[in-house]
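Hey, I'm writing a tutorial for new members on how sequence and structure tokens pair up, and I'd like a real worked example in the thread rather than a made-up one. If someone can provide the structure for the chain below, I'll link this post from the tutorial.
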Amino acid sequence: MSSVQNLSEKIISNIERVIIGKRSTVESVVVGLLCDGHLLIEDMPGVGKTMLARSLAKSLGCSFSRVQFTPDMLPSDVTGVSIFDQVSRQFEYRSGPLMAQIVLADEINRATPKTQSALLEAMDEKQITVDGVAHILPKPFMVLATQNPIEYEGTFPLPEAQLDRFFMRVRLGYPSVDDEMKIMESQQFQHPLTQLDSVATADELLQAQEAVKAIYVSPAVKRYIVDITHQTRSYPDVYLGASPRGSLALQRAGQAAAAMHGRDYVLPDDIKALASSTLSHRVILAPAARLKNLTAEKVLQEILMKTAVPPSREAVRNT
């Protein structure tokens, strides 16, 4: 697992040249990358959501495109369109911004649900269909979407079906006083993003993604994952709990975290650390939960406190 560990450390260190003081968030982003998943970056304006996505894209030797979502955007603006060629007398597909390996969907909740739904097939099946013809997306393929949870005017909340297709939801939060001073110093003359170089190739990333799948997950850890997701479905203040896709995502996230730490097996601590960012956006609270000032993150923390943690020795592969 040293190759995965070295690759992830190179990517994390490179991103930290731009995103200062947010090591845990950057690690979560790399977990999503190693799991071939899509990320929803949600936070207040100005904390570096777009810079985080662009830093990750520049750290990889992959093709990159950015889509600035607006209310007047059409699905064809994202997926591409078929145009009739007068010479060949046939329709030719002109690819849209989705035909890239890393796609930044900036302020995704500003687009209408019709346009948002254009991403569903791409995120789940790694292909897009235009005029009945399927076009396979390049590998690796990752959508990094940003949204502002504070401003609601002129926005369209993401439907549950699309939220469930995001592997993880991460937040940055405000920096500390010392970190904010470092940010000001680093950007006094030019933005550090302009000096960022790629530190990994697409082939290296694909190999790392395959290696992550081979990480051992013991029956005890699998049962721990299922216990957590099942409790989200029966929790009193939850209207809709995490889906089986959430269980699969949490297992894969644990595998990536183990590989990043140089282990070939998943510990319960890996699952516990990633449960909130992997499951919180899949949990829909009941209306009465607002009166109790509950959030999905708080619900998951309560569930984690009540769920019995298997002994670490049961997570190790028996040889």
